[in-house]
Write a structure and sequence with these properties.
- With 688 residues, this protein is an alpha+beta fold.
- Helices cover 44% and strands 17% of the residues.
- It is built from 22 helices and 20 strands.
- It has a four-stranded antiparallel sheet, with no helix packed on it. A four-stranded antiparallel sheet has the order 6-7-3-10.
- Helix 15 runs antiparallel to helix 16.
- The longest helix is centred in the middle third of the chain and has 28 residues.
- The two termini are 45 Å apart.
Length: 688
């Protein structure tokens, strides 16, 4: 949103709550190029806002809505070839759809060559485009737009000219906003809305009955999650045989040196800072790579071979943790860094920190590799996630060394080095085996082999956990374990925790009406990749209405509030909400018992009766067609709630009044539960 717009909103602050919800991420420009005497090229140029994407025409079935471009003319025309997309294609694997999806960002041109059947007189050529756009949290309803230009042929062997209408800028916007700008739309929209009966007079989303709602979500949560993951990963690495014995030696060097304790403590803090700096600097190459090829991480994260490679690497890491071999950097690197310590001063301290990072690589490498694999295959903003993860990792080390330098007497309370450190490594080895299966599963999904079903994945995790439990109770040993290991209380507690985890996993092998093992969502294969999955009409055992007017009558009969779910078959974030949030044990009963659910699909392609099909003049030579059920519910959402994003949730009373502030996009379980309980509670307290 530019500065001018912010000034306008500040001036018109009374209307901010009504207008701020409209999404306008894609703008089109229509042009016609003359290629020869009677050969032309229609071009629709889409300019896409940052963080938004438009799906390609080449999408797999049962995923998002592919872009479609068609041409028609008053003089008749014949297309030459198919639609050509000109732009940088991005592809990534969709966890929600279980397929590879293709999309464009920033800018894309859709081109279609054609000939006129009658090239002797001016002809109007109309381009129609249907497209869908999404960002990381929401998807907008599929939009169908029309653009028109007139071609005036001037005879053989001369160039024809296209008489352009005013620049056709297609706004993926609500028709109510456009109605304020064009007189034609202002007269057609209310008439059309009355004809279809879509405008509900009692609905006033800007003035709900109660003011409870959900605070706006931010996209920064993943960064802090990875910071914490890196922090805990660093703490675990400190307990490994490669690092733990070095802690008292290093701290003692600073606190007991001849230079004095005050200066020694200062140098210890500098040492900790350099450790943090070195780990953060490890992420710099990924920022450089991302700057050169911005979508490279999306591309490699959905590569079958990359995920298979990560699977093999994680198995290799596990073997190292089990003690069968060590993963080390070339000794020459450590030797050079160690010699550089003699420089003294701050430079010497820096190389001391660098030496620690290098010589501990055999233990820290697999942990850092796990963070790298998780970030590369789990997000579009890989460099920043890695920076936060590595910063967390280095921060944990910096804090430990800094605090121990400040309170050196604490060193005496640290446990002595011993066999327990190898136990930590072996436990990490079993964790690496479990994580390796995640990458194998993703390769299986991307390649569409679907061999690693959800139940098989769970069974393999059970087997791995059984191995871990047997190890913790001393029933199996690895190369660096004592011949007669002492089974400490900690090992016993972890062993019983492993047994509990096995019991938890077993429930995932039992078919049920709703997904199980919700704490492992995003790690396990999708619920539809299952030996027991069968396609059905219900959602988590529920059968929502797909018509608002039928649902509101049911709400009146049952005296329950109505939950309107504006959704789409091609809406990835909608599927995430259903699988990861709706299915939660404290959410699903609310949906089943306390509300009437109406799921209105804005991309439903079933045609409306011909008498109810119409179009809305959006100005500047474009018209929005209303010809399908999806078009109808999309328009219903726009004229009643001034919103065109999915998922979008609205709670209304049986007489059609909005109870509380509607919410959009993928959100946490806590936010969605707060939205539901607040609105339902208000209705129960105030209904007869």
């Amino acid at each position: 949103m530019n500065l001018k717009t912010w000034y306008l909103l500040a001036f018109m602050f009374l209307f901010q709550g009504i207008t701020a919800q409209i999404k306008d991420p894609v703008k089109f420009k229509y042009s016609i190029n003359t290629l020869s005497d009677n050969e032309y090229e229609a071009v629709l140029t889409a300019t896409i806002d940052k963080n938004w994407k438009v799906y390609s025409k080449d999408l797999p079935p049962d995923s998002g809505v592919p872009t479609q471009m068609t041409l028609s003319s008053t003089a008749g025309l014949q297309t030459i070839g198919g639609v050509v997309e000109v732009g940088k294609k991005h592809d990534e694997f969709s966890e929600a759809f279980g397929v590879q999806i293709v999309y464009f960002v920033d800018r894309v041109l859709f081109k279609q060559r054609f000939k006129l059947k009658n090239n002797a007189a001016p002809a109007t050529v109309t381009a129609e485009i249907t497209y869908m756009t999404c960002d990381d949290r929401i998807c907008l309803a599929p939009n169908t737009l029309e653009f028109s230009q007139t071609i005036t042929p001037v005879g053989p062997n001369t160039s024809a000219t296209a008489t352009p209408l005013p620049e056709a800028v297609a706004k993926a916007d609500t028709v109510m906003t456009i109605a304020a700008d064009t007189a034609t739309a202002a007269t057609e929209l209310p008439a059309m809305a009355r004809q279809e009966g879509l405008k509900v007079a009692t609905m006033d989303f800007a003035n709900p009955l109660t003011n409870c709602g959900v605070e706006a979500q931010t996209n920064d949560e993943n960064f802090w999650t990875y910071l914490l993951l890196g922090f805990f990963g660093g703490l675990i690495a400190l307990l490994t045989p490669c690092v733990f014995p070095m802690i008292p030696l290093t701290v003692s060097f600073f606190t007991k040196g001849a230079l004095g304790s005050a200066k020694g403590k200062r140098d210890a803090f500098i040492y900790g800072f350099f450790i943090l700096l070195i780990f953060v600097l490890l992420s710099v190459p990924f920022h450089i790579i991302d700057g050169i090829a911005g979508n490279i991480f999306n591309q490699i994260s959905t590569s079958v071979w990359l995920n298979v490679t990560f699977f093999v690497i994680f198995l290799y890491f596990a073997g190292s943790f089990f003690g069968y071999y060590d993963i080390t950097l070339p000794s020459s690197i450590a030797n050079r860094s160690s010699r550089a310590e003699d420089a003294g001063g701050i430079i010497g301290i820096f190389f001391m920190a660098l030496t620690l990072v290098i010589v501990s690589f055999s233990c820290t490498g697999p942990i850092l590799g796990s963070l790298l694999g998780s970030a590369v295959t789990g997000s579009a903003d890989v460099p920043m996630l890695l920076t936060f993860a590595l910063a967390g990792f280095g921060l944990s080390w910096a804090i430990v060394f800094g605090l121990l330098a400040l309170f050196p007497q604490t060193l005496q309370r640290l446990p002595k080095s011993g066999g327990w450190m190898n136990t930590v490594k072996v436990v990490l080895g079993f964790i690496e085996l479990g994580l390796a299966l995640k990458f194998l599963s993703k390769a299986d999904l991307v390649s569409k082999t679907f061999f690693l079903k959800r139940e098989l994945f769970i069974a393999l995790w059970i087997i791995i956990t059984i191995g871990l439990v047997l190890y913790l109770f001393g029933k199996i040993r690895f190369p660096h374990d004592d011949k007669k290991p002492k089974i400490s209380l900690t090992r016993r507690i972890l062993g019983f925790a492993g047994i509990g985890f096995i019991i938890y996993l077993i429930q995932g092998l039992i078919p049920g009406d709703r997904p199980k093992l919700q704490h492992l969502s995003g790690i396990l294969p999708p619920i539809n990749v299952s030996y027991f999955h069968q396609e059905g009409d219900g959602i988590l055992g529920m059968h929502p209405s797909h018509d608002y007017f039928e649902a509101i009558e049911t709400a009146k009969r049952e005296n329950k509030p109505l939950l309107i779910d504006f959704t789409g078959y091609g809406c990835e974030n909608c599927r995430k909400m259903e699988e990861f949030v709706w299915s939660e044990p404290d959410i699903l009963p609310i949906l089943q018992n306390d509300v009437v659910l109406a799921s209105l699909y804005v991309d439903d392609k079933e045609a409306l009766p011909e008498a109810k099909q119409t179009s809305v003049d959006m100005g500047n030579g474009q018209r929005k067609k209303i010809k399908t059920i999806g078009d109808k519910w999309s328009l219903f959402q726009q004229i009643n709630f001034n919103n065109n994003s999915q998922p979008h949730y609205v709670l209304v009373t049986p007489d059609g009044k909005v109870i509380n502030t509607p919410v959009s996009g993928y959100m946490s379980k806590e936010d969605f539960k707060n939205f539901l309980t607040c609105g339902i509670g208000f209705y129960k307290r105030n209904s007869k």
